[in-house]
Design a protein that fits this description.
Shape: globular
Strand content: under 5%
Oligomer: single chain
Structural class: mainly alpha
């Protein structure tokens, strides 16, 4: 194989990862455009994704098989994650909802250290403090004309999303020990669908979109769920974790830019600095957590 061919093959996972992260960055925009209830939007998102996930599981693993208890737990955590995050998008800006929910790696690493009875490194504690400081800067830097119906509530919900997604991440990691990615994604989505529908009904949300554009946004969310997450999962098996952890943070950047262009949600100077500080803390926490003991 020529050097050019090797370079091209080595660059492919990075290109796929960038694509997947950028696609996931479209999620909060599509949530805003889907004129249904927040939990109902989550229901339609996973429902539209299920046929494609079943096809992928059939091709990759020979069928969907049976779910493990961890796949079921992942589905329940994912339902809470989507419902809470979609509500945060309704109440605060796209940038805040996306950046604050991306504090998940800090939560995951902290939980892993707690459960494994390992003492956190000083640099990790500093990274967590940095991420929290950035989140605080984003919250207080909104200004008097902050977008959203209730920015403080939306920011709080976005932070809560990081906790639910951490549980989802840990459950998916456990489920992946015995099953392929497509099979686990299928079952976690299948479990989350009825949970999200029940939540939407209990909260009195409108279940059906009121326009064709709303239906198109929901279909786009389903396709994004498969294409974006699938691309990231494929690339993560072919790139160093440190590289992947940084590249995936393209997602909140894409979301913030689109929120500014489509909804005129411009970031103030303190908010922009806070977002950069928070994401830097996340990257540093991931890098420290992956150092060998």
């Amino acid at each position: 194989m020529s050097r050019t061919s090797r370079d091209s093959a080595g660059a492919q996972p990075l290109v796929v990862l960038v694509f997947g992260a950028a696609v996931i960055g479209l999620a909060p925009i599509l949530v805003r455009l889907a004129d249904a209830g927040p939990a109902a939007i989550g229901f339609w998102r996973v429902s539209f994704a299920l046929p494609l996930l079943a096809l992928l599981a059939q091709r990759a693993s020979g069928g969907v098989g049976a779910p493990s208890r961890f796949a079921v737990a992942a589905g329940l955590a994912f339902a809470c994650d989507l419902a809470v995050w979609h509500y945060s998008i309704r109440f605060t800006s796209v940038a805040n909802a996306t950046v604050l929910s991306n504090l998940t790696p800090v939560v995951v690493t902290a939980a892993a250290w707690i459960f494994l009875k390992q003492r956190p490194a000083r640099l990790f504690v500093a990274a967590v403090a940095l991420a929290i400081a950035g989140a605080w800067m984003m919250a207080v830097g909104r200004g008097a004309h902050a977008p959203g119906a209730d920015p403080p509530l939306g920011d709080a919900l976005a932070l809560t999303t990081a906790f639910w997604y951490a549980l989802y991440f840990l459950a998916i990691s456990a489920a992946r020990r015995d099953a392929g990615a497509a099979r686990v994604m299928f079952w976690s989505s299948l479990v989350s669908a009825p949970a999200l529908l029940l939540a939407a009904l209990a909260l009195g949300e409108p279940i059906l979109p009121a326009s064709r554009g709303g239906w198109a946004a929901l279909a786009g969310l389903g396709l994004m769920h498969v294409a974006g997450q699938g691309s990231i999962a494929w690339a993560l098996g072919r790139l160093p974790p440190a590289t992947a952890s940084v590249v995936v943070l393209i997602q909140p950047v894409v979301a913030a830019i689109l929120g500014w262009l489509l909804f005129a949600e411009a970031l103030g100077p303190l908010q922009a600095l806070g977002g950069a500080v928070a994401l830097t803390g996340v990257v540093l926490a991931q890098a420290v957590s992956r150092r060998p003991a």
